[in-house]
Design brief:
The chain is an alpha/beta fold. The protein folds into three domains: 84 residues, 2-Layer Sandwich (Gyrase A, domain 2), CATH 3.30.1360; 188 residues, HUPs (Rossmann fold); 118 residues, Orthogonal Bundle (Isoleucyl-tRNA Synthetase, Domain 1). The protein has 20 helices and 15 strands. A five-stranded parallel beta sheet has the order 7-6-5-11-12, sandwiched between helices. A four-stranded antiparallel beta sheet has the order 1-2-4-3. A hairpin with a 2-residue loop joins strand 8 and strand 9. The longest helix has 25 residues. It is globular, with a radius of gyration of 29 Å.
C-alpha cells in the first residue's frame, strides 16, 4: 500500500529542490473532498520567506510536480494558496483486489514481529464482583492487547491485585461478622465494611463447610472470600471473552523479599526517611510534588510500595512494551512508581501508562447511583445480562478513554439501527445476505471481475474508506486508542448503507454485478477484521 502523504511529500520536495527552496512539507487529508483527497499549505508557509503571493507560489510549485498518473490523477490550486491532490480512481479501484487477496490479514503489519508486550488491566482487588467501572478497563485492556497482536506483538495479558492490604483485611472482617451473625452470635460489623449480599453468601458457605468451629481471628474468612470472589471475577471476564495469561499478587513481593530489597536500595540512595512513626519515600527529591508514605505508623504498607516492586519485576522480564491501564483514581500514583524505579537506574522507557475516566450509567436520562461498599452498585454481570456482550464491549470503547463515559442503558438495549453496534453488525449481515442471494443466482465470487466498472461516486467513496483501514490500524497502534476503530467501522457501515441506497448490487449487467459483489465482499472483510479486533461478533444474519 502506498503512503500517499509520504509520496506527495516527496514529489513536492523534488519540486522545491528545483526552485532551490528548502522547507518542511506537511501533507494532510483534505477536509473538503471537492478540493481533492490530500492537500498542503506549503505555499502559505513560504509566502513570508519568498515575499510572494501564496497562490502564485502554489502555481509555481505545481508546474514542477512530477508524479505517476496511475496514482495521482491531477493536482489543483485553491485560495488562498493550497495545493490539492486527487488520487486516481483507478488506484482506489485496485484496492478491492488487495483486500480480497489479503482477506483476514488485510491491514496487518509486522511492526511487532519478534517483540513482546505486557498488558496489565482490570487488576481489581478481590473484594467484590466486578462493577461497570471495572468493565470499561477490562474491555479497553483486552482490545489494546488485540491491537498489539494484530501488529504481530506476542502479548501477555496480566492481572495484578493487592491481596495483602487494608481492603482485604476489611473484607475478611466483613465476612467474619456475617458468619457469626448467621450463628446467632454478636459480632461488630467493621466500619467501612462490605455490605453486599455476596458477603452473606460467602459467610453461609463457610458456615456450611466449617460449622461453628472458627475463631474470630481465623484467616479462613479472608482466604475463602478471596478465593470465591476471584473465581467469580474470572467467570465474569470469561463471559465477555477475556482471559488473562498471568495473575500476580502483592503478597508474592513480600514473600520473596522484593519489597525489602527495594526499600534497602532506596534507603542507600537517601530516598527513605521516617517521620511521625511512618516510613516515607522522598519523592520531592526526584522533582515530584510531595513525598509519599510507604509504611503507615501502623506498620501497614501503602500500595505504592508493592506496586513499585511489581513493576520492577515486569521490567526484569524484558518486555519490549509494558502497557499499564489505570482508572483516573490512579492518575497520580504511577508517577511515584516510575520515579522510584528511575532513581534505581531501572529503564522505564518500555512502560506506557494509559488512564481511563469513569463511567456513569444512565437510565431514562437519569444517573444510576453506584457504591461498592454500600452494595448499591450495578455489577458487570448484570450489565452483560441486560444488553449483551457485543454491546457492552462496543459501548465501553466507543469514546476516548480520556473522556468520561455516559453509558446509556436505553440506547444499549435498543435492538435497532439507532444502536451503533447493531448498525455495524447489520451492515455485515446485510452483505452476507446479498452475497448468498448472488450465489443462489449462480453469481460466483471466484472468477475475474472488472474494478474499472466501479465509477459511481458512492462506490468510489466507499472504496476510499476501505483503503484507509491499514492507515487507521497504524494510527491505533501509535495512540493505543480503540475508539478510533469503533468510529471507523461506524463510518464504513454508514458509507455502505449510502452506497446500497444508490446502487443495486445484483443487476441485469452480469459484469457490473460481479464487480459490486466483490466490492461488498471487501467491505465485509474490513468490517469483520475490525470487529474481531474489538472482540465483537460479525454476524452472518440478524
Amino acid at each position: 500500500m502506498i503512503d500517499f502523504k509520504q509520496y506527495i511529500n516527496e514529489i513536492i520536495s523534488n519540486a522545491l529542490t528545483e526552485l532551490d527552496i528548502q522547507s518542511n512539507v506537511v501533507v494532510e487529508k483534505s477536509s473538503n473532498p471537492n478540493f481533492g483527497d490530500y492537500s498542503t499549505n506549503i505555499a502559505l508557509s513560504l509566502a513570508k520567506q519568498l515575499k510572494n503571493n501564496p497562490l502564485e507560489i502554489a502555481k509555481n510549485i505545481g508546474s514542477l510536480l512530477k508524479y505517476d498518473n496511475e496514482i495521482i490523477s491531477e493536482h489543483s490550486v485553491s485560495k488562498p494558496g493550497f495545493l490539492n491532490f486527487h488520487i486516481s480512481d483507478n488506484y482506489y479501484q485496485k484496492t478491492i483486489n488487495k483486500i480480497i487477496s489479503a482477506s483476514e490479514s488485510y491491514g496487518m503489519t509486522t511492526v511487532g514481529k519478534n517483540k513482546t508486550a505486557n498488558v496489565e488491566f482490570v487488576s481489581a482487588n478481590p473484594t467484590g464482583p466486578l462493577t461497570v467501572g471495572h468493565g470499561r478497563q477490562a474491555v479497553l485492556g483486552d482490545t489494546i492487547a488485540n491491537i498489539l497482536e494484530w501488529h504481530n506483538y506476542k502479548v501477555t495479558r496480566e492481572y495484578y491485585y493487592n491481596d495483602a492490604g487494608r481492603q482485604m483485611r476489611i473484607l475478611g472482617e466483613s465476612v467474619a461478622a456475617r458468619y457469626f451473625n448467621l450463628l446467632g452470635k454478636e459480632y461488630k460489623f467493621p466500619e467501612d465494611g462490605y455490605k453486599g449480599e455476596y458477603i452473606i453468601s460467602i459467610a453461609n458457605e463457610i458456615k456450611n463447610k466449617h460449622g461453628e468451629e472458627l475463631e474470630t481471628n481465623s484467616t479462613v474468612f479472608r482466604k475463602e472470600a478471596e478465593k470465591t470472589i476471584f473465581n467469580d471475577i474470572k467467570k465474569t471476564l470469561n463471559s465477555i471473552g477475556i482471559n488473562h495469561d498471568v495473575f500476580s499478587n502483592e503478597q508474592t513481593y513480600y514473600d520473596n523479599g522484593s519489597i525489602d530489597t527495594l526499600v534497602e536500595k532506596l534507603t542507600n540512595k537517601n530516598l527513605i526517611y521516617k517521620s511521625e512513626g511512618a516510613v516515607w519515600f522522598k519523592a520531592t527529591d526526584l522533582g515530584l510534588e510531595k513525598d509519599r508514605v510507604y509504611y503507615k505508623s501502623s506498620g501497614e504498607a501503602t500500595y505504592r510500595l508493592p506496586d513499585t516492586a511489581y513493576h520492577q519485576h515486569k521490567l526484569d522480564r524484558s518486555f519490549d512494551l509494558v502497557v499499564d491501564i489505570f482508572g483516573a483514581d490512579h492518575a497520580d500514583a504511577y508517577h511515584d512508581v516510575l520515579a522510584a524505579l528511575n532513581a534505581l537506574d531501572v529503564n522505564t522507557d518500555p512502560i506506557k501508562v494509559l488512564i481511563h475516566q469513569f463511567v456513569t450509567l444512565l437510565k431514562s436520562g437519569e444517573k444510576v447511583k453506584m457504591s461498592t461498599r454500600k452494595a448499591n452498585f450495578v455489577t458487570l454481570d448484570e450489565l452483560i445480562n441486560e444488553v449483551g456482550v457485543d454491546v457492552v464491549r462496543y459501548f465501553f470503547i466507543m469514546r476516548s478513554m480520556n473522556s468520561h463515559l455516559n453509558f446509556d442503558l436505553d440506547l444499549a438495549a435498543d435492538q435497532s439501527e439507532k444502536n451503533p453496534v447493531y448498525y455495524i453488525q447489520y451492515a455485515h449481515a446485510r452483505i452476507s445476505n446479498i452475497i448468498n442471494n448472488g450465489k443462489a443466482n449462480n453469481l460466483s465470487l471466484d472468477g475475474k471481475f472488472d474494478t474499472s466498472l466501479l465509477i459511481n461516486k458512492s462506490e468510489i467513496s466507499l472504496i476510499k474508506l476501505l483503503n484507509d483501514f491499514p492507515e487507521v490500524m497504524v494510527k491505533v497502534l501509535d495512540n493505543l486508542e480503540p475508539q478510533i476503530i469503533a468510529t471507523y467501522l461506524h463510518n464504513i457501515a454508514s458509507e455502505f448503507h449510502k452506497f446500497y441506497a444508490k446502487c443495486r448490487v445484483i443487476t441485469d449487467d452480469i459484469e457490473l454485478t460481479k464487480s459490486r459483489l466483490h466490492l461488498i465482499k471487501s467491505v465485509k472483510i474490513v468490517l469483520g477484521n475490525g470487529l474481531k479486533i474489538l472482540g465483537i461478533q460479525a454476524p452472518e444474519r440478524m
